[in-house]
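User: Before I run my own analysis I want an independent prediction to cross-check against. Here's the chain; please return only the structure tokens and, at the end, one sentence I can use as a sanity check.
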Amino acid sequence: MVKIKPFKGIRPPKELVEEVASRPYDVLNSEEARKEAEGNEKSLYHIIKPEIDFPEGTDEHDPRVYEKAAENFRMFQEKGWLVQDEKPCYYVYAQTMNGKTQYGLVVGAYVPDYMDGNIKKHELTRRDKEEDRMKHVRVNNANIEPVFFAYPENAELDKIVKKYITQKPEYDFVAPGDGFGHTFWVIDADEDIEAITCVFEKMPAMYIADGHHRSAAAALVGAEKAKQNPNHKGDEEYNYFMAVCFPANQLTIIDYNRVVKDLNGLTPQAFIDALKKHFVVEEKGTEIYKPKALHNFSLYVDGKWYSLTANPDTYDDNDPIGVLDVTISSKLILDEILGIKDLRSDKRIDFVGGIRGLSELKKRVDSGEMKMALALYPVSMKQLMDIADTGNIMPPKTTWFEPKLRSGLVVHKLE
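Assistant: Structure tokens:
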């Protein structure tokens, strides 16, 4: 069973939301954040990427950078750029991309649910990345950015959300750059707050869609605070962290593709011939070819596109990990033929989110930077949830969720 609670969100006044809101900290580098925040002292980048307030080249992990985040967070509140709601609320956050809208509930997720596995993971985390976000949560004593959860669709929650989205939103804007819509409503009616809390209590689990490192960091800091408090009761604010929870049936996972720097000493033709051991290989010419279904891959090498269809004996439909295209390609192409054994550390491989399109793969190969590109059919939400339910972990770089959550619409304080 899953426990959630409403919280007193700290939010920008309506007229400032577009100036404050930003992309998440981990989808852009320091230089890009510096450029996006240029001339905008209210940008959340001053809190989530505070190295932009130091000379170029300053290490983002410098202790002074974390301190600057806390200083800027205080200053945003003092200047009224972030203001705390008077009562604990839930919030509806809608995102619109390519004419499709998904509706999430912003809640306080329960730290023990993460620790006990009721909030399910499908990816491994790296300790250094966890520690970076833990420092950020500790120094601000707040979850500045939300994590992205999925829950099994629920008609009762849909009904409550529908009631609010027919009303005038608190925020409604299109983000610059990507053109995605972001709309936000406040759920402050006691009966609706209670109903939402009760529905989640009956849910067997929630699933981390995006933000494994932020989830781990937020939960670990909460658990740390519980341990340090001799009078810990379990209802303190630090027992909860901020999450946006979407019904699984509204979410779309897009493809996450691979580009490789060399063919491990093989000529393009020898590489194609080696693929025929496990795949049906069809040449598709110079027009971009997109994978048509699970177990069908798109390969770009030597100026041509190919369709690769895995032979039935290369996967097991009853194995939640073995059936994944990322497993098939990692084992039979990247490892067996190209000698790439560790996707996390091998410098010969890079990964490209499907949001950039397959033309980005072609561009990187045609430029000579890469030798071949491999496009995969996207994983389904059902596959993700099956893997999490069976306690398995997906291989690295398997899922790409879009649109990303906008940061700065609401912040959660830990006290």
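Sanity check: The first strand starts at residue 4 and ends at 5.
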